[in-house]
Specification:
mainly beta, twelve-stranded antiparallel beta sheet, elongated
């Protein structure tokens, strides 16, 4: 699905190498897209992407994300790092920082025991993905100081009470997250 309802500004710089007389000999070397205050919708997302800023660099070897920042609903996101292209596409120090509405994050949790949990306030999330796209390793932390949690029979946490959850794991081949 393509993006639609796109607004904002972008600048594209394209670099090709080779003799201009022979178009078949021209080779793609690099493309840079700089986004400034871009808004867009995607069929894969329930919320509109707002205030997207940063630089995307495309080369035959990788796609780099340089100081990418945007809002998705009430969530502020920042992304930095690269995804290599090749026989085994891989994350290269792909860092994600988010400041999200805790209730919005709770809705993303799997059904079952998690569905009894309620949350409010803000949650800070930082994570790094490394390794193959199909089975990446994930290391991160969730900062819960500004988050109020209630999980009947298990725990209660008031807002303004410091708490951090650190996690490490990976995605298995059958799309199961192992933490």
């Amino acid at each position: 699905g393509a993006f639609h309802d796109v607004k904002g500004e972008t600048a594209l710089a394209l670099r090709v190498l080779g003799p201009i007389k022979d178009l078949d000999q021209l080779k793609f070397a690099r493309a840079e897209i700089i986004a400034k205050d871009v808004w867009a919708r995607s069929p894969h997302l329930t919320e509109r992407i707002v205030d997207l800023n940063g630089k995307f660099i495309f080369t035959p070897a990788a796609v780099e994300f340089e100081r990418i920042a945007a809002r998705l609903g009430r969530t502020q996101l920042e992304v930095h790092g690269a995804i290599t292209i090749g026989e085994t596409p891989s994350y290269q120090d792909f860092t994600v920082h988010a400041r999200a509405d805790a209730a919005q994050v709770a809705q993303l949790m799997p059904k079952g025991t998690w569905s009894q949990m309620s949350a409010s306030g803000l949650i800070g999330i930082a994570g790094v993905l490394t390794g193959p796209l199909k089975t990446p390793k994930l290391k991160g932390a969730a900062e819960l100081k500004e988050t109020q949690l209630s999980w009947p029979g298990i725990m209660t946490k008031a807002a303004a009470t410091p708490a951090t959850i650190e996690f490490e794991g990976g995605l298995l081949k059958d799309d199961v997250l192992q933490v």
